[in-house]
Amino acid sequence: GQQVMQIPQYQHVQEGEDFTTYCNSSTTLSNIQWYKQRPGGHPVFLIQLVKSGEVKKQKRLTFQFGEAKKNSSLHITATQTTDVGTYFCAGIISSGSARQLTFGSGTQLTVLP
Amino acid sequence: ETGVTQTPRHLVMGMTNKKSLKCEQHLGHNAMYWYKQSAKKPLELMFVYSLEERVENNSVPSRFSPECPNSSHLFLHLHTLQPEDSALYLCASSQDSAASGQPQHFGDGTRLSIL
User: Fold this and answer.
1) Chain A within 8 Å of B99 (Cβ-Cβ)?
2) SS3 of A18, please?
3) Which residues contact B82 (CB under 8 A, 6 or more apart)?
4) Which range is least confidently modeled, A7-21, A62-76, A90-104?
5) How far apart are CA A81 and CA B95, in angstroms?
6) SS3 B8
7) From A46, which residue of chain B is nearest by alpha-carbon distance?
8) Around Cβ B74, how many Cβ atoms within 10 Å?
9) Average pLDDT for residues B32-54, to the nearest whole number?
């Protein structure tokens, strides 16, 4: 079936280093959402991208939506221990009249102090 | 406080038991969802309700039975579960269905263990 792939599955960084997670789809996405799930917590909505080539920033987080609307990335500058968690992308895939939000498998980020 | 409350937080049950998971949202949303989250797997969408009508059922086994009596409450009735059903079950809500692109608000989940 249609899937949203996310890499890497795990990432360990030293505090202060940058981090990037990538999301790819085999089909065009209507839009893409990003969520963060802290250890032991629940996914929390971060942002939504809709336009081709769109870039949005939230403090140290930069989100991009590819020109073809098939990929997206989340980049964190100068990671902090509070960034620890799993980051999920979720894309809306249209198939005929049906639209479904499909989550990627997530990237689990560990930040070493 | 997320506005979406799930009970119980933890549940241990035998394979022959019958139990129910409860979800309540205080956000005035029209759509509610059940997800299954297992280790090393993507979030699996199980059921979607929009305006109290089921709009999606992703080939979920019949041992899982959802119920949505009103737009604020969602239940997941469980019976004759299997060990592979052990997982975190997350409830979510959104203003309208996910197809409209609305962000989803998740509850803290119920950690289910099947003995």
Assistant:
1) yes
2) coil
3) B15, B63, B114
4) A90-104
5) 32
6) coil
7) B103
8) 27
9) 87
